[in-house]
Design brief:
The protein is an all-beta fold and 474 residues long. It has one helix and 31 strands. It starts with 18 loop residues before the first strand and ends with a strand.
Length: 474
């Protein structure tokens, strides 16, 4: 690694974007399952980079613009302000068809202290219940720790059902004394005071350093919370990265274990700037949940920032481009293989947003790892690769589209963001591509795939410069 990567950290670095009118709390009827799409650089009225989230219902044959809605902070009872970046992170509780809760991070709110909005879904009225939104803020209510300007609470989110329902919130730019951007994480559970975790605190297995960005990636597993610390030091090695696992007994008694390259059976060794832990996902092997960890700035031999992904199975294994049949290509400088990860059953989706497609720089690519068996998966045995406009996938190969910078999967459907895509004549308007699968136990295909932009029929708004629609997916 030869340069600093800021991964999943809200810093307001992107350009201003589409101007849309503040949204009112209109009822969206006639839909059940669906997915949220964040556009944190949306302008709302005169409020630059206020941000917005579009909810796209599942019409039975995939996500649809019909009955889609756009939410702003005004929709959920807040105040629209410039730079709030509402939608920089999204999460959804949807384990049984209907969405239970939609969680939206606004890390730029309150002068960068940040907010999180938890929006319940009313199954009886088939709409989001804007009258009962919960607002989480540092220093208020269940989040008792004092707020800090610029900590960016809500820059990352994870929702999951482990021993109980947990919402985990990252504030990766939290300063600890004189140490800047150390980061902290809040583990919340309904009816309980949030537990704050910070490097150096009791139960956290690493010492604090400036720029750690503890909480830049988050995952709620079957029995544990996983926290990515992509800039953690490993002894004298700066920004090598690590992942901390916290087992989930009752809140207040978490204890952590650290995973680092070159230890615990994980291949390789810690190198300056690898950013191990920049992305996280869960898949199933041997009947157990296992964790995938991205190190998008890993150097492969002399190839700088090619990227790698490690799966912590019974025997941890590390993958790079071309390491299994079907995982096309070879490691190249700046590919950032593993920049984003998502799991669906035994399958793993890998974002490679720095991939050059022919002469087109940073067009991006999405790759998939498939197991040796869907009935009794034990290892990853094959792969598939998708590039916009090639092999049947929709969209256009464009310089800087960064296809694969965000990925998600739900019920066999793969979504991959290209937030740098030029759409509707607007530079960086943003888009995402949907690839269908018959179930979570099949290979994804470009047959029936489609691209979604703000020009898609039924999707509110319109693409303008710097919207970055699709920057956050869940």
């Amino acid at each position: 690694m030869r340069r600093m990567l800021r991964l999943s950290v809200a810093s307001g670095l992107l350009a201003a974007s589409t101007i849309i009118a503040p949204h009112t709390a209109a009822a969206a009827t006639g839909f059940s399952a669906g997915r949220p799409v964040g556009a944190p650089e949306e302008d709302v009225g005169a409020a630059v980079d206020a941000g917005a989230v579009t909810w796209l219902p599942n019409g039975g044959a995939g996500l649809t613009g019909t009955h889609s809605i756009t939410l702003t902070e005004a929709t959920v009872g807040g105040t629209v302000r410039a730079g709030d970046r509402f939608g920089a992170a999204v999460a959804v509780d949807q384990s049984a068809g209907l969405p239970g809760k939609l969680v939206i991070g606004a890390p730029g709110a309150d002068r960068g202290a940040g907010r999180v909005y938890v929006v319940p879904f009313s199954a009886s009225q088939t709409r989001f219940d804007y009258a009962h939104v919960t607002v989480l803020r540092p220093g208020h209510g269940a989040v008792g720790s004092s707020a800090q300007i610029g900590e960016h609470f809500g820059a990352t989110l994870a929702w999951g059902r482990a021993t109980n329902d947990y919402l985990v919130i990252g504030a990766p730019d939290f300063d600890l004394g004189a140490l800047q951007d150390v980061g902290r994480v809040f583990v919340t559970q309904a009816g309980a005071t949030a537990l704050a975790l910070t490097p150096g605190s009791v139960g956290v297995p690493d010492a604090p350093h400036s720029g750690d960005h503890f909480g830049a990636a988050l995952l709620v597993g079957a029995t544990s919370v996983f926290v990515g610390v992509p800039n953690a030091w490993d002894g004298p090695v700066a920004h090598a990265g690590e992942v901390d696992r916290f087992t989930l007994p009752p809140l207040g008694s978490l204890s952590g274990v650290a995973y680092r390259q070159g230890s615990g059976g994980i291949a390789g060794s810690s190198e300056a700037g690898d950013h191990f832990g920049a992305s996280l996902a869960a898949i199933t092997q041997n009947g157990q949940q296992v964790i995938a960890i991205g190190a998008p700035a890993e150097d492969v031999g002399p190839i700088v920032d090619a990227g790698a992904v490690t799966i912590l199975g019974t025997a941890p294994h590390t993958y790079v481009q071309g390491s299994v049949p079907g995982l096309s290509g070879a490691p190249e400088a700046g590919d950032q293989f593993g920049y984003a990860l998502a799991g669906d059953g035994a399958n793993l989706i890998i974002g490679v947003p720095g991939e050059d497609v022919g002469p087109v720089a940073n067009a991006g690519q999405v790759q998939a790892l498939y197991p040796d068996s869907f009935s009794t998966p034990t290892r990853m045995a094959s792969g598939g690769s998708f590039v916009e406009s090639w092999g049947g996938a929709p969209g256009l190969v464009q310089v800087g589209a960064r296809f694969g910078a965000s990925v998600s999967a739900y019920a066999g459907w793969l979504s991959a963001g290209a937030s740098g895509q030029n759409t509707g004549g607007a530079q960086g308007g943003g888009a995402f591509v949907v690839l269908p699968g018959l179930s979570a136990s099949t290979h994804w295909t470009t047959l029936g795939s489609y691209i979604v932009t703000q020009e898609t029929n039924g999707v509110p708004g319109a693409s303008e410069t710097g919207d970055h629609f699709g920057a956050a997916l869940a």
